[in-house]
Amino acid sequence: MLNRMNDAPSNITIERKHNHVELCLRDDVLFDGTTSGFETLGFRHNALPELRFSDIGLTATFLGRKIGAPLMISSMTGGFDKAVMLNRRFAEAAEHFGIPLGIGSMRQALENGSQRESYAVVRKYAPSIPVLANIGAPEVAKGLSAADILTLLELVEADALIVHLNPAQEMFQPEGDTDFRRVLEELSRLAAAVPVPLIAKEVGCGISGDCAGKLLDAGVRVIDVAGAGGISWQKVEELRYIRQSGNENRFSSEALRELLNWGIPTARCIAEVAKLRELPAYGSFEIIASGGIRSGIDIAKSLALGAGIAASAGQLLRALHENRLEETIETWLNDLRAVLFLTGTPSPGQLGQQHLIYKHRPILS
Ligand SMILES: Cc1cc2nc3c(=O)[nH]c(=O)nc-3n(C[C@H](O)[C@H](O)[C@H](O)COP(=O)(O)O)c2cc1C
Fold first, then answer.
1. Ligand 1 near 225 CB (within 6 A)
2. Which atom of ligand 1 is nearest to the CA of 203?
3. How confident is the model over 77-93, as pLDDT tens digits?
4. Which CATH number describes the domain made up of 9-39+60-324?
């Protein structure tokens, strides 16, 4: 195992971010046993749509603001040199479509200011869309100071702050921080202190209805389920661990297969979290559907299950790498338009459970 004890924290953070992007682009890091669950759903065809395809608009609402379409580019990069270009391109695309953009973890900016431009670049190219700052649960558990919060928000002129909850990723990460005590308590303090809405997200293992309830009780305003079915961060970190240590035997092979595919399917998470709306205590909070979104059909299924918008990371990173980012988003939006037309739904916000067909049995039964 490499001795990382003498590395400065910021160097480790910079190198790790670089590794993550490379691994997501070049290695097989997708779930391969657990699926998003979207494949279990279909749509009820409407032979009388009473709409003209070309009239269908895709505008939606997010954080009380009108956005161009119910899609977000999910939190990915920042904090290393190549991230300047990646974030610039994500920002240009998000601004073009008028859709929100999540910034990757801003931990590096709290460690030192050497990579500030990789975050700040976003506002130069995306002046008008919602931009979401991002920090991890382990940093929150240690307690963020008022100065830390200001750094995170000011650097990108953030419209909201995302806290990512990633216990499985940290558990697999060679240098991971697995102290998740006090996260909820500190989240609650943060929600009261931060001048923008607080969003909680996973990174691919999903947020259950139970967890979402606790997060909403703590003052979180938006839940991004980030369920299983796309990138498995356990796989990403397991590859880093094996390459650094040469050791493949941290867990038994049976357990490893299960743990690498650990997570709640995205469709199930959305259904569970949306069900909380039936309880008077929770009223109207927003849901972001992410984890394995692969097309506009998945976006439409997410909205029908109860999400306000969907978000994608891995697929859009690959699209950017292959120089087809805007083309991919345009295609996904056209997929969504097709579902709206064929279900006779004039706008994305009107999609609901009544438009779905369960190919097996309802997700929550
Ligand atoms: C290269 C890369 C870096 C990521 N970094 C972060 C991060 O810093 N913070 C975060 O909350 N999520 C991060 N994610 C996770 C995504 O936002 C998303 O939750 C996860 O990949 C599941 O969505 P997907 O299946 O569409 O990729 C990252 C994803 C990718 C591909």
1. no
2. 19
3. 999 999 999 999 999 99
4. 3.20.20.70
